[in-house]
Amino acid sequence: MGTVILISTVAIIVAVVGCFVIWRLDASRAEEVDHVAPPPVAGPQLEERPAAAPRPIE
After folding, report:
1. What are the pLDDT digits (tens) for 34-47?
2. pTM for the model
3. Which 8-state DSSP code applies to residue 14?
4. Residue 48: its pLDDT value, please?
5. Alpha-carbon gap, residue 56 to 58, rounded angstroms
């Protein structure tokens, strides 16, 4: 009977600690996602060239 109580107690403690760890990981991930990324830095713009005219078929 003592073994059953011991195993049950350990199982409850592991469940509570596991839930807390998972909750903390989820909360830290939510904080990480919540941060807004800085606006992108404008880099050099590429000049658009006109499309080459198609060559006639010979």
Report:
1. 766 677 777 666 66
2. 0.52
3. H
4. 67
5. 6
